[in-house]
């Protein structure tokens, strides 16, 4: 429950909706209660006037009396109708304030969570699955909205109605009020118990459903593998098992539902029987009128729905509390990638690694050991190494996706940590190993949020990445849609588009993480030569496991198990006759073969 305190700031922000909503709830309930008294007056009028009416049997006055009597009844009827109409109008206003407030809170909360997600470091996204992140920003926020919306609305309504109805009941008869209220706690508790059962089973169904959807999503994403390994039958059997589980869980919920509603109706019926029995005795004793009993029955029935809603409301609050706990868990995570000095200045591009060591926090794997390297401004350095030697880790550190666990990195002789994180990253062009393109046009993928980027710059970047000829061949050119809604580019085209995106931003430091692996050696040479031209006076770090990508660099650094084992130019390393030369010859033989 404590977790829900977090929402108070939003409730405070939209307090006027809440205050007005409460006022409208009081008014709408008043218009709901007054008709019960009108019914009492009308009924008592009928009972009393009928006796007098029959006394005047045959007299001319009887017709006159009938007219007055019929007019009064009609008036009561019209008044009741008017009250119902007014109640409806105010109920509409209640929803227009409290439910609207809940939608505003949902919107604000979603925005805050999304914004917060974006501040969190890469390690956070490694620890949590995308499904989990999505569930917290969608399903959990929806649960929380049910609390600040419908649950709050029914809660306020319940308090107001209880207070009003019980004071009206007490003003008529204390004894009858006590009898009437007797079954209500039982009703409330049983609704709560059954609701908790429903909630538990619904959650299980929800979990099973998300398992089922994940299975189906994965099966269709990997449909090519399933088909080529002729695993359709096996895949269907697995699906059937999951679906069977889902069916059984849904049936168990239906059982509870089917039992629940008749029990509620029975308990309400019991309250009504009590009113008629005890009230009937009171009428015989002359303490109450038939109008009073009718009024009471109306009151009891008025209380039933809110009492039923009490169980629902409490379980919604519980559900919201557990959802908010999950949301708070992420909101309380703070990024460790902060800057103390927030320096914002144009970079020149000199990079110094000083005894840098790095251990991945989640796996404990030490990816870099005592790494020392100085890259001059404008120099191009190739980092070469076997798989798992720590090359991508270097790229992550250069983009400040992680901070070194030992030593430090200096950029233009200033610790990287002192730069404002965003201002620093804006000057880095990063081409990741796993290319990621958005389901958008080619132009927007290159532009990527920089709305004021001139089209000529995009075109030049595309030409430098050797993608121009491919794009002009597409019927829609730069407006060609990619991803789910559009075409699928080949692996090499994707890599080149990703390079165009990085160079279009005119970065001071370019980090290419093995991003030429899917292009042929010829294209690789064209791109690297273009890169040499554009990156003149800028620094580039070219990470690769291919010698062909490395040999054009000013300097080559060979990495093994997170340590530098050789460095120098292509000619120097060839002369050294060690790891580089061995790799070069191996790859040359493979290429010739
Ligand atoms: N996010 C991560 N969390 C935990 N361990 C990681 C993570 N990324 C990499 N590692 C581990 O760190 C080591 C270095 O990985 P890295 O990706 O830097 O190698 P690499 O040289 O780029 O390899 P490749 O050429 O195959 O991409 C590996 O042992 C890897 O398993």
TrEMBL record:
Coiled coil: none annotated. Its main location: membrane. One of its GO terms (cellular component) is plasma membrane. Residues 351-586 form the ABC transporter domain. InterPro entries: AAA+_ATPase, ABC1_TM_dom, ABC1_TM_sf, ABC_transporter-like_ATP-bd, ABC_transporter-like_CS, P-loop_NTPase, Type_1_exporter. SUPFAM superfamilies: ABC transporter transmembrane region, P-loop containing nucleoside triphosphate hydrolases. The chain crosses the membrane at residues 14-31, 68-94, 151-170, 176-198, 259-284. It is found in: Cell membrane. Residues 19-319 form the ABC transmembrane type-1 domain. Signal peptide: none annotated. Keywords: ATP-binding, Cell membrane, Membrane, Nucleotide-binding, Transmembrane, Transmembrane helix, Transport. GO terms for molecular function: ABC-type oligopeptide transporter activity; ATP binding; ATP hydrolysis activity. It is a multi-pass membrane protein. It comes from the Bacteria. This is ATP-binding cassette, subfamily B. It comes from Dyadobacter psychrophilus.
